[in-house]
Design goal:
Number of helices: 2
Shape: globular
Distance between the termini: 53 Å
Strand order of the largest sheet: 1-3-4-5-6-7-8-9
Largest sheet: 8 strands, antiparallel, barrel
Number of strands: 9
Order of helices and strands: HEEEEEHEEEE
Helix content: 10-25%
Radius of gyration: 18 Å
Oligomer: single chain
Length: 147
């Protein structure tokens, strides 16, 4: 009986571990230094930021830092996973295939989902629920390839 229980537990661990890796996304495309160019929160009109504004996100393979004018705001670990629930999570109708990657900061699975899309040198982050005036759309520009 102990043997059967141990075997079942081991099989579950393998299945669960394999499932997580299957949904994992390589973070190479995100590695670098990104500066905020535009932010739109809730019903407030978009705000544009000029180069040199100092609102920076820095990503390595698994770590991030968010800073403003050289002052560290937040840092920690992140991971990327495939997630097809963007429309339900943010309440917007989006073109198929966009925003299929979710970024999870500090393994906080209870936080509002944040979806990312990288196109050339632009990083866009969507989070919150737009129909209830709680959505956030931030656009960053890559200013350096390496942190």
């Amino acid at each position: 009986m102990k043997y059967l229980f141990s075997t079942v537990c081991l099989a579950l661990v393998i299945v669960i571990s394999g499932g997580c890796k299957k949904n994992a996304v390589n973070a190479d495309f995100l590695t670098g230094v990104w500066e905020l160019r535009q932010a739109q929160n809730g019903m407030i009109p978009s705000v544009d930021y000029a180069p040199g504004s100092g609102n920076i996100f820095t990503f390595s393979a698994s770590r991030y830092q968010e800073s403003n004018n050289g002052n560290l705001i937040k840092s920690g670990d992140y991971r990327l996973v495939k997630d097809g629930s963007v429309e339900a999570a943010v309440g917007l109708v989006l073109p198929p295939g966009q925003f299929t990657t979710r970024i999870i900061f500090d393994n906080d699975m209870a936080a509002s989902k944040t979806f990312i899309e990288v196109t050339n040198t632009r990083l866009t982050m969507l989070s919150g629920y737009f129909p209830l005036d709680g959505g956030s759309n931030k656009v960053y520009e890559k200013i350096a390839d390496k942190p």
